[in-house]
Amino acid sequence: MFDRLSERFEEVFRKLRGQGRLTEKDIDEALREIRRTLLEADVNFKVAKDFLQRVKERANGQDVLKSLTPGQQVIKVVYEELVTLLGGSASPLRLSDHPPTVIMMVGLQGCGKTTAAGKLALRFKGQGRPPLLVAADMYRPAAVDQLQTLGQSIGVPVYTQPAGADPVAICREGVEEGRRTNRSVVILDTAGRLSIDEQMMAELAQIQRQTNPREILFVVDSMLGQDAVETASRFYERLSFTGCLLTKMDSDARGGAALSIRQVTGQPIKFIGTGEKLDGLEPFHPDRMASRILGMGDILSLVEKAEQAFEREQAQKMEARLRKEAFTFEDFLEQLQAIKKMGPLDQLLGMIPGVGKAFQGAQVDDRAFVHVEAIIKSMTMAERRSPQILNGSRRRRIARGSGTTIQDVYRLVKQFEAMQKMMKQMNRFKPGRTKLRLPFPQ
What we know:
It is a single chain. 56% of the residues lie in helices and 9% in strands. By secondary structure, it is of the alpha/beta class. It folds into three domains: 3-86, Up-down Bundle (Four Helix Bundle (Hemerythrin (Met), subunit A)), CATH 1.20.120; 101-293, Rossmann fold, CATH 3.40.50; 303-428, 434 Repressor (Amino-terminal Domain) (Orthogonal Bundle). The protein has an eight-stranded mixed beta sheet, with helices on both faces. Helix 11 links the parallel strand 6 (243-247) and strand 7. The protein is flat and about 75 Å long. The two termini are 39 Å apart.
């Protein structure tokens, strides 16, 4: 996400940090580089111009130029203005005081609207708010089937009517069905078109009048850049949506749509799609996104993902085992499966300050997890609990059972033993009493 943009910002900041004092000329040169970076990222020209004007006014102030760390001060100004550009603060969905909360999904065909509706439904279900999906796209072939399949996979009911039914009536009756079955949220998956046309907008306006949605989310493909922003702007002129949901953000190395859409439409980004899986949906936090763009990581989002993946009791139980120095391959497998729930490994690394930059350009393969899992699952319980009994014949059997090589099994065992040793050292370390012995001269 935003790899190219982050890389260019890092180059600019490196030059600023390398200078003890800054002049207005130095700042102007840095701003020219930032301007080029934003335009290459397909940011709207007017948005880029206004952003740079605000940064220039603040960066040329005496508080910055005469500070002991002017380079850091300029970076701070860029960060703060970037947060403002992205919306300032998070804009959560507004829920109705009297359920169900009606959410209307709108957008052009092919933007990922139906999948986004499924992701949103799964999110509400996880929060203890039972949703209902309403299949109102009667134009795209198999659109209803797609939503039904998504609903079945996440255990959420889908309201449908026979082919040829009126979409406005489907939405109106779908909301009534949600109210009758005590659903907290009703999500309307409306039809998209290849372009904005009169028929499409008239139909959406009718649905809005008859269902009175609490939220209207405009779903847009982030990889379209300025085209996405232009479409959102034209759409908003005809139908005042309340927020945006950007899909395919995990594949967007430029970030032009995310940086422009709030300023152009005046409406906040509420969610971003971060993967093909149905749990790949994140609330949009401008401060966290600005931090990711500038290569500073996103620890808060990483902690939230960890809290969702690791249960408190499980973590306490693991801590007790570590204190007893009883960490086994079974424990390792349990932790591995929890990490997999947090999302793709390259996205997790990008949230750790400095680590994402260190792995920039590297291919982080999540399939390595699959191989490790297969090796551990091919072990007997005795072998998982006592890896020291793994002789040559046992390793050959495990390699055959897991579809890997003996060298792969040997490598995993050695890595696990090294990790056990490190954990024992950390466990013996008591502040003020015992010094941690490092495996190299101090």
